[in-house]
Each structure stands twice: as C-alpha cells, then as structure tokens.
Amino acid sequence: MTVLSASHINKYFFEPEKFQVLQDVNFEVKKGEFLSIIGKSGCGKSTLLYILSTMDTDYEGSLEVNGERLTGLPQDTLAAFRNEHLGFVFQFHFLLPEFTVLQNVMLPALKLGKYSNKEIEERAYEKLRLVNMSEHARKQSSKLSGGQQQRVAIARALINDPTIIMGDEPTGNLDKANSGLVFDIFRQIAHENGQTIITVTHDPDFANGSDRIIEMSDGRIVRH
Amino acid sequence: MNLRLSFQIAQTHLLAKKRQTLVAMLGVTFGIAMFIVMISFMQGVNQFLEDSALDASPHVRIYNEVNTQRPSILDQTHSADSDVNIVHHQKPKQQLPRIKNGLQMVRLIEKMKGVLGVSPEVSSQAFFNNGPIQISGSMAGIDYPRENRLYNLDSRIKSGSFQALLTNPKGIVVGANLAKKLNVNVGDKVSVTTPTGGNLTLRVVGIFGFGIGTIDNIRCYTSISTVQEILGKDASYITDIHLKMTDPLLALDFAQTLQKQFDIHTEDWGTANQAILAGKKIRNVMTFVISMTLLVVAGFGIYNIMNMNVINKLKDIAILKATGFGSKDVVAVFLLQAIIIGILGGFLGLLIGFGISYALSITPFETGDMISLKTFPVLFEAQYYLMGLAFGVITTVLAGYFPSRKAAKIDPVAILRG
Fold first, then answer.
1. What is the Cα–Cα distance from B28 to B347, expressed in whole angstroms?
2. Residue of A nearest to B6 (CA)
3. Could you tell me which residues are beta bridge partners of residue A164?
4. Predicted ipTM?
5. Does B12 touch chain A (CB under 8 A)?
6. Cβ separation of A111 and B5 shorter than 8 Å?
7. What is the pTM of this model?
8. Residue A134 has what DSSP assignment?
9. What is the pLDDT of residues B108-156, one digit of tens each?
10. Residue A84 touches chain B, beta carbons under 8 Å
11. pLDDT, tens digit, for every residue of A131-174?
12. What is the Cα–Cα distance from A217 to A221, expressed in whole angstroms?
C-alpha cells in the first residue's frame, strides 16, 4: 500500500540567484517501509524531505500522503495534517527546554485533542518506555544528554501514531552507541508497528541497515 | 485552536523566565499606577476648584442689569433714515436694581422641575466704619433658611451662628478677613453706611469663612429687612435671586429659559466662572496626555520584551509548527503572554495606584486660612480604575500582537535546517 507519492517535484532557490535544487523527482513509499535518502551535501535531499514534510510549500509538482493530495493546501490545514499523520525527528533534538520530558512528548497529542489528558499521559509513558526513557519523564528536557534528548524526540514523534515518521539526519549529532539505539528503535517501529520511516542521512551504516535507499545527486534521484 | 493548551504553553514560558516577566509586568504596573494617581489627583483638584466656585456662587443668578447702552430719546423721536443723530456721552437713566415682583418669582421658580433651592437677596455696596477709617465691602440681605439650603452657610461659620439673624433684627455675620480688618468679634458693634447715605449700627452675631478671598474679604450677611431698612425701601424690594439646580449642567439651559419666561437678565455659573471651566479642560487634556504617554512607554517596554521573547523562542516556534501547531496557536501563545502580563501588571498597578492616591489624600497640606483645604484633594472613582485597567490591557495586547504575528509568520524550515 502506497502511503506517500511525490510526482514531478521541481524546486528552485532564488537567492542569491535562481538555481534548480530538485529536478523532476518522482517516487513512492510503501506502508511499513524504512527508507533512507542519501547523497552528498547540497544534492537536495534535505530540501526534498522538507517538501515531503509539508512545511515547505514552495515547489512545483504534487505530493500525496495517505491518498490525500497536500499540494496547494493552506498552512493551517497542513499543520493539522502534520499533527495527526506525520512525526519528526531532527538532527538537533529540538525539545522545548522549559518543559519536562513528559510534557514535550504530550504536546502534539494535547494539540490533537483526540484523547483525554489522562490517556495522553499514559500513552506518553508507553512511548517513553519504548525508547527506554520513562524513568526521566519528570525531568526538565534541557537537563538530558544529546542521545537522551533524541530518544525523547522520537517518543514525541510517535505520540499520535503517525503514518510516517521523518528524520533529518536523526543520528547526525550522536555517537556510535546512541546512533545504534536510534536505529534499532526506527527498525522496530517500521517492522512491528507498520509505520513508515523516511530519513535523510549521511551515515552509511544507518542507510545500509534500512529497507531501501534512495540516492540523490544534483537534484535528481540517481538510484532507488 | 486549543486555547487552554496555548495558555499552558504561555504560562510555562512566563514562569521559566520569571525575572523578565516581572520586569515587563512592572512596566505596566508603573504606567497604570501613575495613571491612577494622576487622574485621581487632577480630578480631585478639578472637583475642589469647581466645588469651591460652585459652592459659593449660584447656578443661576437673576438680577436687573442697569444698562447704559439705551437708545437716545432723539433716536426714538427722529428715526435716522436720512439724518445722522449724534448724542454725546449719554447718562444712564435713573433706574433701580429692583426685580419686579421678585418674591412671587421666587415662589414660582421654586416649584419648577430640577430646582434645588431659590433664595431672594437684597444686596448693596456698603462701607464699614472702624474708627476713622472706612472699609468698603458688600452687604447681602438674606432669608437665612433659604440661603442656608443653597450655600450650606452653617458649615462656613467660624464663630457665632447664622441662626442669630432670625432672632436678632440688628444682627450681622461678617466675613473672616473683613472681621480681622475691622478688628471685631462676635458681640461687637459695627457701623454700616450705604452709598446712598443710609446708616445703621449692627451687632456682629457670627463670623464666617468660605475659604475664598474675594468673599471673605468683603462680604457680610444680614437679614433682608435690615438691608431694606438701611436702603429705605419697602418689603418687596429684591435685587437678586439665586438658585441652585439638582444638576449644575442643567442650569446652563435653565438660565436661558428663565430669561425668556420672565424677561429679565440671568447669568449661569458657566459664564460667571469661565476661567475655572477652561482650567478644568486644560488640566483634563494634560492629565490624559501624561497618562497616555506613561502607558505608551509601558507598551513599548512590553513590545521590546515580547519581541526579544519571540526571537529567543524561534526554535520552539519552529518545533511547535512542525508538530502541528497552526499560526493561530502560535499567535495565541505569545498574545496570551502579553495579556497575562497586562492583566497581572494592571491589577498590581491599580493596587499601587490606589495606595499612593490614598496616601496623598491623607497627607496634610498647609494652605493657610484662605483655602478650606486640609489634605490634597483626591477623587476616588471606580471608573478611573476601570479605565486604567482597560488602557493597560489594550496597550499590552497591541504591544504583544505585533511580535505574535511575527512569530506566527516564521518559516519553520529555515530554522529547522539550521
């Protein structure tokens, strides 16, 4: 079953001068697939990921997720869509520093408002257990180490049981041990929960361990 | 949009930076406290000046204007269509300042709607003899119960009493400064001469002080019949009718109505006290300008702090947007912070403003005998406090809105990509 399809994606940068970053990118991703996008710096893989994430709307072509066409929808609709169907893990953890670990994980679910606060808290604990962080739930998130923060970020990405989890170099800032941990969690999510994972990575070990690799060069897909 | 969630986030942000929140709050607090103090004090001063002017003067005064601008007899007999009439330095006619049917008029006006009280008076210039020197002043013959209702004379008495005028036909109540100049006390005799030559020796039964120099220096009160006797007039001779309304503002129109109805000259308090009214307007404008400036300055303070807040929180905003918070949620998060600062700072400002106003209102203020003021005049009105709070909240909302809009427009991609 296809959960994401991108067709004829073109993207230009206009600063400092007009430059085509993505050239006619076409691909599909299936449910439960663990996909890595690799390529040299500047090949457009991150740009592609942010288009897939619906946060970047300035592109040509069309994007469908879960059978729903997202191209051209207003920002707030896309925000609501992200909230329910997409999870994100970034290179620099990006937790909200004033909040506790538990609150960070709960926030997207509170925004979605599908469950009661009590249920959301239980679910957040469950996700934290999955990433082995439940004993730190009450800690201020800024007090955690980098690897711990990244695991909390994964728990947050999972809280609304999204269809797709996207990672922008999720292990880029982590040591070997933590990278391994994050990789194992991703694999587990993809294979046991049937959630799709799309990550951009520089890490060859990480990419080789995933189900499928898309390699990009100069704004085109050269291997998939 | 989930307002409770936005509120929760706003609250966490504020509590995480307690000192910054406090500084922003104190800006509003100071602005509103000063606004309250300024406006309460200024309005207190206005009220005091207005009261002291209105207390001692009637809302409407009815009198017969002795007019020298009359047409000459030549003009009346030879209308100057083709000729030119020149009458040089025409003298006024022999004319009494009496109001015709004054006492009937008093009874009529008394029954009219909105009238608080009417008092007939016979007034005359007078010379008070103190040994070889003469001091000029004015003498008002009054009907004590009626006049007391208008001017609350009993509260002005310094020694003796006004009631004595009722029992003692030769009694006189003298202004405090005039009494000092004449060197008389209650029980002493004073000799009064009118410009027309009448003379009478009266006994001082009371000394009063309005706290207004122009009155306390020259005025004395006695009964109507005494003045009529000195002037050699009959018992229906009345020169002035003073009246007060339940609402002073009604008096302005009422004076015009009376003038038409009775065909007689009237003067309202607004015309008689133009300087005070103009001064009040100027002070009001000044108060508002200063208060607004204070609030605008406080507003800029909040604007700066909120702006910095947004810049410090760029990453957080990007994260919120990435995880599905819409621009409305982001606006709510930051606007709510501004509103919380505005409301808390505002209430604190009201409290402090009230405290300072109260302290001012009990601070002794030495002004001497001339002005009947013991402490600073301060007016406590709920509407000023509501106004202060409303202004405070509006300023903070405006000051918080623009940074919030900026936060909502932030492109998360630019920040998340680093």
1. 9
2. A111
3. A86, A196
4. 0.89
5. yes
6. yes
7. 0.73
8. G
9. 888 888 888 899 999 888 998 877 778 899 999 998 888 888 888 888 8
10. yes
11. 888 888 888 888 888 888 888 988 898 888 888 898 888 888 77
12. 6
